[in-house]
Write a structure and sequence with these properties.
This protein has 1893 residues and is of the alpha+beta class. The chain is 49% helix and 6% strand. The protein has a six-stranded antiparallel sheet with strand order 24-23-25-26-27-30. Strands 3-2-4 form a three-stranded antiparallel sheet. A three-stranded antiparallel sheet has the order 19-18-22. The longest helix has 38 residues. The radius of gyration is 47 Å and the shape is flat. It starts with a helix and ends in a 5-residue tail after the last strand.
Amino acid sequence: MAAAAAAAAAGGPQPPQPELPASVLALDKAATAAHLKAALSRPDNRAGAEELQALLERVLSAERPLAAAAGGEEAAAAGGGGGGPGAAEEEALEWCKCLLAGGGGYDEFCAAVRAYDPAALCGLVWTANFVAYRCRTCGISPCMSLCAECFHQGDHTGHDFNMFRSQAGGACDCGDSNVMRESGFCKRHQLKSSSNIPCVPKDLLMMSEFVLPRFIFCLIQYLREGYNEPADVPLEKDLNKVLQLLEPQISFLEDLTKMGGAMRSVLTQVLTNQQNYKDLTSGLGENACAKKSHEKYLIALKSSGLTYPEDKLVYGMQEPSAGTSTLAVQGFAGATGTLGQVDSSDEEDQDGSQGLGKRKRVKLSSGTKDQSIMDVLKHKSFLEELLFWTIKYEFPQKMVTFLLNMLPDQEYKVAFTKTFVQHYAFIMKTLKKSHESDTMSNRIVHISVQLFSNEELARQVTEECQLLDIMVTVLLYMMESCLIKSELQDEENSLHVVVNCGEALLKNNTYWPLVSDFINILSHQSVAKRFLEDHGLLVTWMNFVSFFQGMNLNKRELNEHVEFESQTYYAAFAAELEACAQPMWGLLSHCKVRETQEYTQNVVRYCLEALQDWFDAINFVDEPAPNQVTFHLPLHRYYAMFLSKAVKCQELDLDSVLPDQEMLMKLMIHPLQIQASLAEIHSNMWVRNGLQIKGQAMTYVQSHFCNSMIDPDIYLLQVCASRLDPDYFISSIFERFKVVDLLTMASQHQNTVLDAEHERSMLEGALTFLVILLSLRLHLGMSDDEILRAEMVAQLCMNDRTHSSLLDLIPENPNPKSGIIPGSYSFESVLSAVADFKAPVFEPGGSMQQGMYTPKAEVWDQEFDPVMVILRTVYRRDVQSAMDRYTAFLKQSGKFPGNPWPPYKKRTPLHPSYKGLMRLLHCKTLHIVLFTLLYKILMDHQNLSEHVLCMVLYLIELGLENSPGEESDEEASVVGPERCHDSWFPGSNLVSNMRHFINYVRVRVPETAPEVKRDSLASTSSDSLGSLQNSGTAQVFSLVAERRKKFQEIINRCSSEANQVVRPKTSSKWSAPGSVPQLTTAILEIKESILSLLIKLHHKLSGKQNSYYPPWLDDIEILIQPEIPKYSHGDGITAIERILLKAALQSRMNKRIIEEICRKVTPPVPPKKITTAEKKTLDKEERRQKARERQQKLLAEFASRQKSFMETAMDVDSPETDIPMEITTAEPQVSETVYDCVICGQSGPSSEDRPTGLVVLLQASSVLGQCRDSTEPKKLPITEEEQIYPWDTCAAVHDVRLSLLQRYFKDSSCLLAVSIGWEGGVYVQTCGHTLHIDCHKSYMESLRNDQVLQGFSVDKGEFTCPLCRQFANSVLPCYPGSNVENNLWKRASNKSIQDLIKDVEELQGRPGAFPVSISSETNLSKEMESVMKDIKNTTQKKYRDYSKTPGSPDNDFLFMYSVARTNLELELVHRGGNLCSGGASTAGKRSCLNQLFHVLALHMRLYSIDSEYNPWRKLTQLIEEMNSQLGNEEQPEVPILYHDVTSLLLIQILMMPQPLHKDHFTCIVKVLFTLLYIQGLVALSVKCSEEDRSTWKHVGALRKNTCEAEKSYEVLLSFVISELSKGKLYHEEGTQEGAMVSPIAWSPESMEKYLQDFCLPFLRITSLLQHHLFGEDLPACQEEEEFAVLASCLGLLPTFYQTEHPFISASCLDWSVPAFDIISQWCFEINSFTEQHTEQGKALLIQESRWKLPHLLQLPENYNTIFQYYHRKTCSVCTKVPKDPAVCLVCGTFVCLKGLCCKQQSFCECVLHSQNCGAGTGIFLLINASVIIIIRGHRFCLWGSVYLDAHGEEDRDLRRGKPLYICKERYKVLEQQWISHTFDHINKRWGPHYNGL
């Protein structure tokens, strides 16, 4: 084959060669292919090969649209003049397909190849945003991922898995046992053994081996042509153009890879075969095109800053010597220049040239090797050049997918990985230049994560290709481009360089892909070990880390606020975490056992070297520069973490890895500086630096950073403290925190470095830090589980937490392989040990709660650790929150009533290596500080808080707990130079120093201080002075001087460094500014010891003299068997008692002295005399206290007032007497209803001129239309088969009915026969508050001028009720009228039903008019009209206009009574669909139906119905000439039996003048009931079978002449049947019979039940109406007697009687005209209609009256079922897969959220659907976010999720991807809000959607 190829290459494409027979061209493609295949299969296939080559030359060269004109002509010739390049390419691809298939069909060929697929790997490649799964239980590598199909086909029940959206793309690992455990493989990839797959027949893929090399070469030529090395950056447009042209070719290759293993191995051969590549691409030979293409390739290489090795002669000769790695040939050996020289020629630096002046290049130690890593590339195969162009074109998605699709082929995988590594430096360069670095980063990681997650492969590449060298060098090189001079410490002479966090490289995390690869390979043990063993690499790496040491330096602004707050700190923290800390954790995870000691020693050694270099570079001696802080000390942290590991896991001796004292002193300075700066920042000393400095302080302790930042820092300080002189260390702390000057006995002092207002918080900061330093044991002996538990307790004590926020807040070791994985076994078990789960709660009006964890009682009791809480709080308020919760717990459990102090907690024992830490507690310096502070607190000096006392006591207690054994001869004189603090205390043991009395202290005070005056008096008497001398005065104690001395000593000890100049002591910083008053020395008489101070403090705190009584005097047992609890609650008093007890226990002397002091009991000694200034401050305090108490009292009073007001104003449930519409019969005197206006506060009746109105919200609603007649709930479709068809809904049925009527009857009559408003009906609701309408108008004006509006639009008339803030959009006027009038109407009159019927008719006949003549329009009538307009505008036109003649008055008429119907029906739904519960209206005073009726009635009466057509006459009069009526109209009226009775009721009532007479009401109801009853009988007769009918007919006929015939349903039924039999209604059933007729025979019981059910809806609505109009309560009853109770309540039954025999509904009938006559009249209308239309006639008679309550769709238990079906589903409108799919929960429609694809007239699909489906209300489930969004009109809100995970939490946006389950309660709440129309009131966060959803 090679020979053939060579021949072809040599021959080159001369003009079509004569030996190619013309016939070949003439044959069609398939025949040619078959012919060639046959030729090639012969043993001597030379001729065939040549023929094929020639053909390919021709066909494929045509495929070069970018070639020069000459190429173009050729193309035209070959393509048969194919239309332009596109056609030629099509042609070429067709040829290739035919040739591959060797004459057969291409699809059959594909199928044949697939049969030989031996691959047991899935290898499916996906791109960003694909939904994949990760199972931690099955994964070996943390990067393991599975496609959805493999995941669902495997068994992962009970595993720790989650679903995730791929960020960068990835590939499925199913079947790859390097990355995941075999138990997790899916059914398809459970290892197939390769034996059972047959061998691939040779001839199947033979053609492919010939065709593909040419094809790929052609592709490469294209890429070469297309890339024009531009002068400036290549235009993305051009590159994309080339890529678009290549789309079909790359897709073709991609399809080949999907054919399975057989084809992939052919492709691998082609891509990696070096001979092929050489022959085709060398550019030798006489082919002009090939030459040109080769030149372009060389140019591209050069311009990339790479050399082609042939240029340097060295390479030609060099044979790889045995020792060097295989890569040496590829250019790793030569190139001697160092990086420094390369830079000048490297065009990359031109863009950064502005920084060149400042930049200092670091010369790398091993220049030669690195030079070649960076600059030499040689391509030897198609694969290598393909990757080169892939990088050049910035990783086009298609190419990436093709390269990755090949990975299941093992041979390819290795070759490709090596190629990738070889191009690594080039990738970095391209990435740095790229404009789209984000996309490119993702694509790079998409590839690299597939290669480097595999340990075996990573190891192989590390060994063969120097992977680690390459990575570290490339990273170093990358960072070198953005270095600047460090300004830390010594700005002028610093030699240190740091990265500049403002550069794009850091700001945009461009380094991320490279660092992430590095972290990935370090997670493999074999690779990490090589790294830790290679000293050269470690040096280079420390060099890299030192670039980050001291970056992003902050300088404190002292004068004005900084102009521009830089946000670079984000970049700095991210860089330290990702580039320094994470590799560190990766390395640490491999240093777990003793055998790895040498690794730690290596790291520590090079780390210390790097630190030493750093100190030298920044010229650091002993003092840090003032007002500077950097939070970034990665070298310190590397050192600390490796030290910790060494002691904890590797049993190394700590001292063997520690440096000398001087180095330790230097090491502690910067971490200590950070701790002091934290206190400064929290004391607001850095406010002028802006908010960002607070941001840094918070990030430093935040959960993702703390264990890589603050924890190592504190640990390092603990190590230093345990090894340095304690006095030196303590004084350093107070000096760093700038509170040295405060620590004086004098009541006044001056602080040269700190403003007075900051002193207190800085002192608290210093003491808190000391406490943390001494009590924290994170690295000093706690086990991992203890640490986890402590962290968890601290987080839970601050606040209850959800499971996910706990996972997030607990700093886990960032390295994935470390063991404490979130969700791991230990996490869950610790959680269940320390916390209780609180299930999610639902307050109906409140926010949705999540499932929370709250600490168990015993945790508060024994484990609450304030120190840990302080260390871990990001916000200071969290510490307070923890203390408040602790206090509450103690109160509740009765353990401690008062205000407790933070509890003292015993600590885990120290690891022996750190024992020295406790010496801090036993050094004189600390004792002097404690003594001074206790004294100052006792004397009430300023600036000391309870917090300070608390810390002081804590430190004393710690000291007592950790005393160094029995006191020895502590009086032994201290050897060594006399120090000033020796005059204070004799020894260093706290136990003995506690009892040491200090008599006099010499202090330095400002001359103005009170002490000075007193002193001068004392000095006059010489004898007193003499006595002073003898008693030994304590000297002035200066911490600073002490520290300097110490430092000097240590430096001198290390005499080798003696030549370092020590700065003079008076460094300018400490000299006091000139203007301050002079300091003088005064001597104070103290005469106290620590013990006596404690006892006096006890008295002071308890407020009683001699309150302390040593407990052991009563009960000597206490001393013998002390039961000191591990954990103590209480306040300062208990703390002091505890300390005194411990002191007494530790030494008999102490016990004796305590008793003595108690005997003396002196009152606490105030200073000699209180100066006036001090008196003033005391008075001030007292006054403040009183004022505070007064304020509290006032507030409490105000709160109770407010509460009682709220109770009266918001009274929702109990209907009280003052409720506007509740009418009380008890008061006969004339009283009008009185309304309160909530705006002006006046009360009064509503009048014509100044009407009052109810605040109402009008909204269109389609809830009623969603009722269905089946109880079986509709489910959300989750497969293609399940679909929801909306024709069984109430709205659909009513629509069909109306249109059917309109087909056959007169339009105006049809519009009176039904109700509309099932869809888009207007629902009116109120909060029950009233206001004057004129007040409301001015209120709206003021809202209009107020620009800051919360989510509602004033222009649309929206507002919130001024009192209760409920959302509203209109005002419903209250009709003026007095209560008595109503009472009169209620009295029963004794008129007969016939008279009443006449009355009704007369009243209806009166012309309608507003109560006052319409000419003089009153305010009231205007308002009535305007509110009617509002009601009309609430719903869309299509829901109002049903008439055939648009705009006819009948339309308005229909609309108005339908509004009443809608509101009554909805109230019925809210009551649960029946009236069994009885009682007042559920809404109590919130019902506005009465007012609404007035408004509707007034408007209805404007449209008088022609008395001819008034249905009332048809109901109550017999019409004589029946026949005459039919002939004269083309369209008859609607027969009365087809009328909707409830609609008739509303029409009749609204046509009457208001207020209505109770008698008239009852009369109307009685008449309508007769009609309804007959309708029921007719429907029943239609449902019966023929036999049933005849039976009933006879039964009834017999009894027709009995007295009660008109009230017997048998008689009536038989009469109806006989009447209707005259027409055609019962005929022609034929086919339809089965559908209509119910199979069962009807028994009397079932008929009675049917009739009652048929009539109940009407009775319910009527009873509600009566309740609202006349204010009568509804009786409660059982369900089975509802009919009878309602009937008697409505007056249909004379009285409700309880009898033995069952209740018969017919007994309610009350006929006003002879029953049989009127029935026959009604039946006649039906008969005349069914003459023509039997079917329709029958359909109209059977009305479905039993609607079930509306429900939302039923959702599946598990969210995954919804997600899997919908997230890939295509939209039915635009046939694309939507980016944001959503589904309507009312009707199940699938919509595109925000999709422009489905936009219609500027409305996006969701908004449009909400209007069509819910008349403006839409409830959508967002598939990709699992949340529900509500659209209401022009606003929307996020409602929350009804799917929660196992811990009761929502997972918005599916970020965590844990399995979610339906929360039935939440879904019920949602449904309830939908049905009750309360979305607007309950959900608070609304925003406008501008039709864009």
